[in-house]
Predict the 3D structure of the following.
Amino acid sequence: MSPLDEQDLTRALRAEAARPELSPLGLDDVKGTARGIQRRRRIATGLAAAAVVATVVPGALLLGGTGPAPDAPVDDPDVVEVAYGQRILLDLRELPAGDAAESPVLVDGDLVLPDGTVVEGPDTMGGGIADVVPLGDTWAMAYDPGRGGEYDIVRVDTREQLQSPDTLAQSRLAHDPATGRVAWAEFGGGQLPTIVVVDETGQELWRAEVAEGQAFEIVEPLGFDGEDVVYRFGGDPRTAEARRVGPDGVQRTITDGTPTSLSPAGDAMVVNEQRRDGTTCSAVVATDDGAPLWPQACDFSLGTFSPDGRFVSTGISELSGPDAAATGVVDARTGELVATYAYADGAQSITGGARWESASSLLLGYQQSDTDTDPAAPARYALLRVDLGEGEAQTVGPVLDFDPAFDTGGLRHFPR
Amino acid sequence: MAGSEAGTTMLRERDRDADFAAYMAVRQPSLLRTAYLLAGDAHTAEDLVQTALAKLYLSWDKVRDPELLDGYVRRILVNEHNSLWRRAWKRREQASETLPEQGYADAPDDGLQAALWDFVQTLPRKQRAVVVLRYYEDMSEAEIAQVLGISPGTVKSQASRALAALRGRVADQPGLAGYRPSTTEGGEA
């Protein structure tokens, strides 16, 4: 008996790929399609402006409650007693129903605001809502009407485009809870990639070109450290850097690696470093000199800081099998284990990343099936709250039934 | 002056088109094959590639590093394919649980290749994208992670789960005697 190996699969795919007769396209075909896309983009941009539906979310999508206004001052997080080393069971069959989310959530591509307003996501090829942050008494979102990764920064209440005319923006928005400032990166329109900072009314405060002669480069602002914006520079994880830039336009590299999160005080950040074998190690480093605060972790990746900066969540994980457990939260300053996620049986995955709701709770998109032997087995989906103070998880909103085409990446939460 | 500017613009566009056409000529056959493996039928594959190349054409001036072009266009291709699914879900169309007709089953192999292709078509779309990029395009986990915008760990787990599922399906097919998943001796393939 010979085992089915990877070469069998490669041979089968090559044989199948060679089989059909596929018609090559001419340049005119492609240019004609490009013109059509350009027309649809112009229309879609107009439709995006009209897509904000002021309606109460019906039935199954009622995930939002009557949360606080987005411009409400950020409270000093209450210090919640959190036990270290706790094990929190994630099992949709067991979890109690919790309160509605107090910050925006994305359900299959549509944005549900805390007051129940639904902002419909684009129903066009390659579109989506990638990020949402408070902007004064409304919200700003990174909205792609269908360009496949090129965004508009749109003010939710007036549907006004915030980035410069004729430019496109990247997917990430940074928000400073202390001052209400918002930052994004825009490109095109004859300018190199540029970080733009606005105040809570959307009025531009300053901008700085951050590219090095490249017309396009991945630039993701993470947050603010004083006047400076701290950002990721570079799309290739092998060469990406954490950098900072101030109103004077002077850029400084902080450290190599891909930064993913900045502490609320701006003094520390999470950096992922890709090794030669393709695996990734994560570290919390000081923003001023890039020195690690504790030895880097290589068996799990790090995600985002809690609002009080005490904790760091871990990245997306997929686990299966009885007694499987994954690191969930660590102490930001020491790396000490705060919580692991435990599973009963079957296959589970945290699909939407874990984002903080408060200083002691975080929300994550989650899917669970009852078997780990068949990846196509029916799964259910829910937004979960992990409450570190109570040491338990809850469902937030309904548990959605299996749908083979459900976009699990479209079930996630945006912290305020 | 204006005439000179217009002439320069036309020249630039002509250069741009020539560069793009050269890229298309080299890469299009491979993109079509990859798109076919993602989509499972020739017409959808041609549509996917047409849209992906059109989007690349619109972004052509922004991509300065030629080494990034292939990853960029593959990313568009996979996103386009995922969007087709997403739009289908929005219309509440249910994906078929049944396997596609096997018009290509005249392959002179032992049945394993055709069976594997059938099984690949039933994989969830993200797993299928990982499988196509890993085992057809021969990309590394890190490269796939970059193209799909996910972590290398997720690529690894998706590929591993897909392979486990395929082994399970092969083992369940009585007509594929001689092929059994390796669970003991020989370890993981």
Remarks:
- The CA atoms of residues 48 and 145 of chain A lie 7 Å apart.
